[in-house]
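dumping this here so i dont lose it
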């Protein structure tokens, strides 16, 4: 699941029955997947006036203890709520353990693993990528360091949380990100994606055999694309280009999503930009309405002074040819934020390397290769002696035999 929560708390879900049951709806009651992955964005309120631009720009090493406690409590509340929900809504004969949690300026990741599968997991490593203020905070603050307080707060939200682990001998990387906001900032978002994917963020694997067993492209596991299977989720903030809000809403109401998807900035970048980082990822076809931006508490798209056009900001993409298949892709109507959560289910094929058997198979392959190479070499020599020097086949074979 990916969801920009808009600083919502678990208590926010109590006011409407539909919202109360959202996790019951999202979690599969009759199927127990091995992994449950939750990725949140804007889990804390960065518009809080106590988090001032002055403090950030001065680069003070002292943090407001109350603000930090508020942020930590928000993360803990959601973690505890997810733990209870998994216990309550998943099949009674299956139990889950919390594999990993991480947070960074509003981003929050929470990953559960089926208890019977915990022993299959190894090499759990995490990293965070900060895109703003020289890498000190979320994302880019902008060209003008004296920009308005609200602009700084907005840009602080971006960055990525990365989790890498091995399931048996297959490497899996989960990326939860929040990219640059703004209708016209497609290039900034593309740059953010490139920076995230090209970051050397994770500890490298120095054992060449383990690298060969678990990573791809000659990688050592220090970069996202070194991993066999990658799932990227988040508020990617891509918008719909060259259409007014009224035209977009009219197309949504008439069910003409194809018209809007032709102008979706992410899909356009994948088609037209050969250097676009997400060209390496796949996405299931979108057949649900845009997930942003709603008036909080309603099913109405933004009616504020800014009158933002709807867009598919919230996305889940994946990578791993032949090893991963997406089974579904849907949004859910949770009204406590201006974004709607999006979920996806994947079927992943992992592997276990049997070292002794592989060594035997490798030696057999080498022997067969040498046998074929020698045979081809001998045939080539005979052909040369016959066709170039004019010897008959028996004479040529006799010379080669000597």
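and the seq i came up w/
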């Amino acid at each position: 699941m990916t969801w920009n929560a808009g600083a919502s708390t678990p208590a926010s879900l109590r006011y409407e029955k539909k919202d109360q049951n959202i996790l019951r709806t999202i979690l599969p009651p009759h199927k127990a997947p091995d992994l449950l992955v939750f990725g949140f964005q804007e889990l804390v309120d960065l518009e809080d006036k106590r988090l001032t631009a002055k403090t950030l720009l001065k680069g003070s090493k002292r943090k407001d203890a109350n603000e930090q406690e508020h942020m930590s409590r928000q993360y803990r509340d959601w973690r505890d709520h997810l733990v209870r929900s998994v216990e309550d809504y998943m099949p009674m004969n299956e139990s889950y353990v919390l594999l990993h949690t991480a947070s960074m300026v509003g981003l929050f990741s929470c990953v559960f693993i089926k208890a019977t599968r915990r022993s299959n997991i190894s090499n759990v490593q995490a990293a965070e990528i900060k895109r703003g203020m020289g890498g000190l905070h979320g994302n880019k603050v902008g060209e003008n360091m004296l920009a308005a307080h609200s602009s700084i707060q907005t840009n602080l939200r971006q960055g990525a949380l990365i989790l890498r682990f091995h399931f048996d001998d297959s490497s899996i990387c989960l990326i939860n990100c929040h990219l640059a906001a703004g209708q016209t900032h497609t290039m900034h978002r593309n740059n953010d994606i490139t920076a995230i994917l090209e970051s050397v963020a994770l500890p490298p694997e120095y054992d060449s055999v383990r690298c060969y067993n678990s990573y791809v492209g000659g990688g050592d596991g220090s970069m996202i694309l070194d991993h066999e299977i990658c799932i990227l989720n988040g508020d990617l903030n891509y918008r719909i280009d060259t259409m007014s809000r009224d035209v977009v809403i009219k197309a949504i109401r008439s069910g003409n999503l194809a018209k809007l998807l032709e102008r979706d900035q992410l899909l356009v970048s994948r088609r037209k930009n050969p250097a676009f980082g997400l060209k390496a990822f796949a996405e299931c076809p979108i057949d649900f309405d845009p997930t942003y931006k709603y008036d909080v508490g309603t099913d109405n798209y933004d009616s504020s002074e800014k009158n933002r056009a709807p867009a598919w900001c919230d996305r889940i993409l994946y990578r791993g040819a032949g090893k991963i298949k997406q089974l579904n892709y849907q949004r859910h109507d949770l009204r406590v934020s201006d974004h709607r959560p999006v979920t996806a289910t994947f079927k992943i094929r992992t592997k276990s390397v049997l070292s002794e058997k592989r060594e035997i198979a490798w030696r057999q392959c080498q022997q067969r290769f040498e046998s074929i190479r020698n045979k081809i070499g001998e045939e080539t020599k005979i052909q040369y002696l016959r066709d170039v020097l004019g010897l008959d086949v028996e004479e040529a074979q006799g010379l080669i035999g000597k």
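Residues 363 and 369 are 10 Å apart (CA to CA).
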